[in-house]
Amino acid sequence: MNLLVTGGAGYIGSHFVREALKKGHNVVVFDNLSRGSKESIPAEIEFRQVDLCNKEALQNEIKQFDIDCVVHFAAFAYVGESVESPSLYYNNNVVGSLNLITACVENKIDNFIFSSTCSLYGNPNKVPITESESIKPINPYAFTKYFIEQILVDYSRAYNLKYAALRYFNAAGADPEGDIGEKHDPETHLIPIVLKNALDNSRPFFIFGDDYDTEDGTCIRDYIHIIDLADAHLRAIDYIVDQKKSLILNLGTGNGYSVLEIIRKVEEITGRNLNYKISGRREGDPAILVADNKNANKVLGWQPKFDLTAIISSAWTWHKNPKF
Ligand code: UDP
Predict the structure, then answer these.
(1) Confidence band of 183 (pLDDT split at 50, 70, 90)
(2) Which of 96, 136, 219, 291 could bond 52 through an S-S bridge, CB–CB 3.0 to 4.6 Å?
């Protein structure tokens, strides 16, 4: 199929692009390079530096290609930044996505895969979290994802559009071949922060709270390897194209690990001493987020293949020797 991947220079998008190419898809990437790395895009594929907020430029570019399905990763994704600068988030994420979805309808591109998030469940009532858990975003970032899902629901009712909204839990790990990996500036995610400390422990990192209602008092998350995420996207494309039905699915492993368990695992894999301290809770962090992923298994036949050791080992390979 001919795929348009937005945000293909970012962490999750760039890993998806490689897996899509391995499956024999043709890929064109649109990315404004505001946060992604051009080096993470394979040289042989079509790339356009397009900002989705520039409606006219987007319209002009999208017309040049015969696209079967859009896979939309492009977004800003820092919760703290979204609280400080909601305008940045509503404009970039919601306006950019609305322009893209509108361009799809106008150009008769009927299939759309959307990078959503478990953070739209806020503080869930029940864990593991099913897709029928109530939607209660607690920060502007999560609201932007919720609004985009709603636009897709409404557009798919009114127009000939099929979508898959894939609600990721904690994306982690790196390309096992070591060519690309997680690179954020600033880095806010736990696994890269802990691995960076394994490389240089001259300054401590902080555990955000050890007084949660969990076994060791630290927050529990469901870490999912990005190659497993990419696999689910490829299956979702086939599903919406073949079945002509839309989908909303959680993508997580169903296994939760506490911050301290992640730290122990990093110590075990790297053999390095880590330097950390306990600090206060980070605002907006729920105690436990773990997916119920039965629907993704039932509908897509999808099952995560990488465990926590594989996630951290692949990320460690990248952090020891980042290519860009
Ligand atoms: N965390 C931490 N110290 C850090 C970064 C993260 O203790 O320097 C904790 C954070 O409070 C959360 C978990 O690690 O409970 C995962 O955080 P991350 O930012 O990686 O992902 P999130 O769950 O916020 O999407």
Answers:
(1) confident
(2) 96
Mean pLDDT on 304-312: 98
Nearest to 109 by CA among 68, 137, 150, 147: 68
Q: Which CATH number fits domain 2-172+223-251: 1.10.10.10, 1.10.150.910, 3.40.50.720, 2.40.10.10?
A: 3.40.50.720
Q: Which among 208, 261, 276, 312 is the best mutation to test ligand 1's pocket, defined by most ligand atoms within 8 Å of the CB?
A: 208
The widest CA-to-CA distance across the chain, in whole angstroms, is 57
Ligand 1 site, residue 285, Cβ cutoff 6 A = yes
Residue 284 pLDDT exceeds 90: no
- In the reported structure, the alpha carbon of residue 189 is separated from the centroid of ligand 1 by a whole-number distance in angstroms of 6
This prediction's pTM: 0.97
Asked whether the predicted pLDDT for residue 185 surpasses 90, the reply is no
CA gap 141, 89 in Å, rounded: 7
Q: Which residues are catalytic?
A: 141
Q: Is the CB of 282 under 6 A from ligand 1?
A: yes
